[in-house]
Specification:
Structural class: mainly alpha
Largest sheet: 2 strands, antiparallel
Shape: globular
Strand content: under 5%
Oligomer: single chain
Distance between the termini: 15 Å
CATH topology: Amino acid/polyamine transporter I
CATH class: Mainly Alpha
Order of helices and strands: EHHHHHHHHHHHHHHEEHHEH
Number of domains: 1
Helix content: 55-70%
Strand order of the largest sheet: 1-4
CATH superfamily: Amino acid/polyamine transporter I
Number of helices: 17
CATH architecture: Up-down Bundle
């Protein structure tokens, strides 16, 4: 007997195989995590919650995300489909779960684009030395940013991945140089006077002061690892085998955690966490802009401009890297008749889903303009709210891996761990995080945009918008029931198959 782990009945969608190199797929995953602007917002708050144990908390928080990355790797090897979590959820769990996973992925991508647009607007304001951002500059930058990123993404997988690669290398180059300078300053004794000396104790999990310190730091850290899966949406276009394509997400995850741990260690050793020190990471005027503060202290008066440039590059490459998988998810959903067929069109010249790409881009712009018109604090809260959608589709991905492989996984201890046991641990952790985060969002004081009817506005952005997918799914199931009857993506499990020799012996 042998294992049949390949998903059957998947459809080609007109995407060009081999148009994206293996290196490019890894950089797409790295770009989507947006390390520069993720760190600038998370580093100060993480240090405030966890102190000098932040590096070990970064390492601990990546564990459930790494288990999700293993789920993606295994599923990509069995089904290299651009729909990723939508396709896998539909095949392994059922069409409704697959649809919800696809909706959560689309929503997360759009909300991430909205947050990145605000970051770009702020960065441009610093670069042009504008103390007050006029309405013309605000919306002009937003429109130019979304249109340009969408246009570059729609050019073709090869062209857009090449652009992303250049931007990612530039971003990482800036972060590596800044980390190296920070370590050099520490070695020369030029660290902030209130900062503690670099110690291996920072990597001791038993030195974490309390469970609350661990949990709050864990929540901050967990979501800055989001994005590694962007590269796996390109699996139908990646050169090489499905197994090689599946490895790109794991590689991106490993590089990301090394980056975050190294940079956070350098920042803590240089700036420290004394909230009363004006140069500290946790000082009230520094906590939201760690990269800018550190760069200004090292470079001088032009540091803010350099930091703004690095963060802008990070936001630009991140937006391109989130539009690409979202457009391909929409393409797959339309191909299997889970959303209108118009989204399944692929341009014959560029071999990209242009209609889906431009729809995702323009929806991001429209939502940004609407939210900004209400309040800029609402836009800031999209960064908090995106976590619910991310956890939702990661849960669907891990559950898909468990249910699809459970019949064959226990034939070997390695597959039992990577296909069932580790994904199960990820599901438990992420469900706990979703419940806790949703509960926190109900509090009117959570976030910066106040409350609606006594409920935190960030809850409506993160949870209610996700739940809006349910009536949309019901409406579409009435209009196009074939997908929801399992006709276009029938339920399937990996299973054992009799070899020809075994069949002869049974006769």
């Amino acid at each position: 007997m042998h294992e049949d782990t390949k998903m059957h009945g998947l459809k080609a969608k007109g995407l060009k195989k081999g148009s994206v190199s293996t290196v490019a797929t890894v950089t797409i995953g790295l770009a989507a995590t947006a390390p520069a602007y993720s760190l600038t917002g998370a580093l100060g708050h993480g240090a405030s919650e966890s102190g000098y144990q932040l590096p070990i908390i970064f390492i601990l928080s990546v564990i459930p995300m790494f288990f999700v990355a293993l789920s993606y790797k295994n599923l990509t090897s069995s089904a290299p489909d651009s729909g990723t979590v939508f396709t896998w959820g539909s095949k392994a769990i059922g069409p409704k779960f697959g649809w919800v996973g696809g909706w959560a992925l689309l929503l997360a991508s759009i909300l991430a684009g909205v947050a990145a647009t605000q970051i770009i607007v702020n960065a441009v304001a610093i670069l042009v030395n504008a103390r007050e951002v006029s309405l013309l500059l605000h919306f002009g930058v937003a429109i130019l940013f979304i249109v340009s990123t969408t246009y570059l993404t729609a050019l073709g997988a090869e062209e857009s991945s090449r652009t992303t690669m250049v931007l990612t290398i530039t971003q990482y180059g800036g972060l590596i140089m800044l980390a190296a300078v920070l370590f050099l300053q520490v070695a020369q004794g030029n660290a902030v006077s209130t900062a503690e000396s670099l110690s291996l104790e920072w990597f001791n999990p038993f030195a974490i002061s309390s469970f609350d310190a661990f949990l709050n730091g864990f929540l901050v850290a967990l979501f800055i690892f989001w994005g590694f899966d962007a590269s796996l949406a390109m699996s139908e276009e990646t050169e090489g085998s499905a197994e090689q394509a599946g490895q790109s997400g794991v590689i991106a995850m490993i590089i990301t955690v090394i980056t975050y741990v190294t940079f956070s260690t350098a920042a803590l050793a240089y700036a420290g966490i004394d909230a009363n020190d004006h140069s500290s990471l946790t000082f009230k005027e520094n906590i939201d802009s760690s990269i800018t503060v550190l760069t200004s202290q090292i470079v001088g008066s032009n540091g803010a401009l350099l930091a703004a440039l690095i963060i802008a590059i990070s936001a630009f490459s991140s937006t391109m890297s989130t539009i690409m998988p979202a457009a391909r998810a929409a393409l797959a959903m339309a191909t299997y008749r889970a959303i209108p067929r118009k989204f399944s069109s692929v341009n014959e010249v560029t071999n990209t889903p242009k209609f889906a790409t431009w729809t995702i881009g323009l929806m991001t712009l429209l939502i940004y303009i609407i939210l900004t018109s209400i309040s800029e604090s609402v836009v800031k809260d999209t960064i908090h709210s995106v976590s619910i959608a991310v956890c939702t589709y990661y849960i669907v991905a891990a559950l898909s891996c468990i249910l699809y492989f459970h019949r064959t996984a226990f034939n070997h201890w390695r597959t039992a761990l990577s296909q069932v046991i580790f994904p199960s641990a990820a599901v438990i952790v992420l469900i706990f995080v979703v419940i806790l985060q949703a509960w926190n969002m109900i509090d009117p004081s959570y976030g910066s945009s106040g409350s609606i009817a006594g409920v935190g506005a960030v809850f409506f952005i993160g949870v209610v918008t996700l739940l809006c997918g349910i009536p949309l799914m019901i409406i579409w199931s009435i209009c196009e029931p074939r997908f929801f009857r399992g006709e276009t993506l029938p339920l399937e499990r990996a299973h054992m198959v009799l070899d020809s020799e075994d069949k002869n012996n049974l006769r």
